[in-house]
Design goal:
Blueprint (H helix, E strand, L loop, with lengths): L8 E2 L6 E4 L3 E3 L2 E3 L1 H9 L4 E2 L9 E3 L8 E2 L4 H14 L5 E3 L1 H8 L4 E2 L3 E5 L2 E4 L5 H5 E4 L17 H23 L6 E3 L8 E5 L2 E8 L6 H22 L4 E8 L7 H8 L3 E4 L7
Parallel strand pairs: 2-5, 2-6, 6-8, 15-16, 16-17
Antiparallel strand pairs: 1-9, 3-4, 7-11, 10-11, 12-13, 14-15
C-alpha cells in the first residue's frame, strides 16, 4: 500500500478509519472507547475496535505521556503497531485527547510523532505547543527582480514596485523586531497564510503586510484589514485559549488618518515603516 502523505495536521474525522487505545479525556470528561467510537462515527469516521491495516487514525487517551510497552494488551500494542506501519512507509496519524476533542468540534489537530524506545517500546511525543502550530519557519526577506519594459502589455512596473516595497517592508519589520530580540516567523503548516508572526510572552502576533506603492491606497488597506481579520478569526477559533493579536503593517503612513481609528474600532493594530509604532 502506498505511503499516505501527512502535512502534520489532521483536518477532520470524515473518511478516517479510527481506533482508540483506551478511554479518552474529551473536554474534561473521561469517555470510554465505545462512546468515543460513536461520536467519531457521527462525524463521518469509521470506528474499529482493533488495529488493522485499514486504520488511518489512532486516538490515544489514558496512555498519554507514558511509555507504552508491547505487553499483548490491545490498547498498548496499538501504538506499537502504528509505529511499525510508519516504519514500513504507511503513515498512520496519531492524535491525543486534546486533538480528538478538536476534531469533534471540526477543528484541526496536530499529528503526533511516535518514537521507538527499544525493547518493543514506543513513546508518543507530547502535542506540539500552540505557538509551534501557528508560527512556522523563520521568515526571510526575499530578493525581487525587475522585468524589462515591454515584456508584456500589462503594466508590470507598478507590480514590481509593489513587490519590492512589500519585501522591503518585511525586511524592515524583521530588523525592527530583531532589535528587541524577537524572531519573526512565517505561518505553520495548516495555519492561515499570514505574512509574518511572532510571540511575546503569552501573546502571538500575526501580521499582514501591505505595500502602497503603485496601488490604490484605500483598496490595499481594505484588502489587508479583511485578510488579517479573517486569519485572526480562524486562529482564535482553533486556539480559543491563545491571545492572538492582529496587526496590519503598511509600507508607509496612510494619507488618510481615519484608517488608524477604523482599525482600532475592530481590535486591529495599524502600524507602518520605518518606525513601526506600537510594536
Amino acid at each position: 500500500m502506498p505511503d499516505r502523505l501527512c502535512t502534520g495536521t489532521v483536518r477532520g474525522l470524515k473518511g478516517q478509519t479510527v481506533c482508540f487505545t483506551g478511554r479518552v479525556l474529551v473536554d474534561g470528561a473521561w469517555t470510554v472507547r465505545s462512546d468515543c467510537a460513536k461520536r467519531a462515527g457521527q462525524h463521518g469516521a469509521i470506528p474499529k475496535t482493533d488495529f488493522s491495516r485499514k486504520v488511518t487514525l489512532v486516538v490515544y487517551g489514558d496512555l498519554a505521556s507514558k511509555v507504552v510497552t508491547d505487553d499483548r494488551r490491545t490498547y498498548s500494542s496499538t501504538l506499537v503497531d502504528a509505529e511499525a506501519e510508519r516504519s514500513q512507509g504507511r503513515h498512520i496519524c496519531v492524535v491525543d485527547a486534546d486533538g480528538f476533542s478538536n476534531l469533534l468540534k471540526e477543528r484541526p489537530a496536530p499529528c503526533l510523532e511516535l518514537r521507538s524506545a527499544g525493547a518493543g517500546r514506543v513513546r508518543p511525543v507530547a502535542a506540539a505547543t500552540t505557538e509551534s502550530r501557528i508560527l512556522g519557519r523563520v521568515l526571510r526577506m526575499r530578493r525581487t527582480g525587475r522585468r524589462l519594459p515591454g515584456d508584456l502589455t500589462l503594466d508590470l512596473s507598478r507590480l514590481d514596485k509593489a513587490t519590492a516595497a512589500h519585501e522591503a517592508t518585511i525586511g524592515a519589520l524583521i530588523a525592527h523586531l530583531s532589535r528587541q530580540d524577537i524572531e519573526v516567523h512565517t505561518y505553520a503548516p495548516g495555519a492561515p497564510a499570514f505574512d509574518a508572526g511572532w510571540s511575546r510572552g503569552d501573546e502571538v502576533f500575526v501580521a499582514e503586510i501591505k505595500s502602497l506603492t503603485g496601488a490604490r491606497e484605500d483598496q490595499q488597506i481594505r484588502l489587508g484589514i479583511g485578510q488579517i481579520l479573517d486569519y485572526t478569526h480562524q486562529l482564535r477559533t482553533a486556539f480559543p485559549s491563545t491571545l492572538i493579536r492582529p496587526i496590519l503593517v503598511l509600507e508607509k503612513p496612510p494619507t488618510d488618518a481615519r484608517w488608524t481609528s477604523l482599525a482600532g474600532s475592530v481590535g486591529l493594530r495599524l502600524t507602518w515603516a520605518p518606525g513601526f509604532s506600537g510594536i
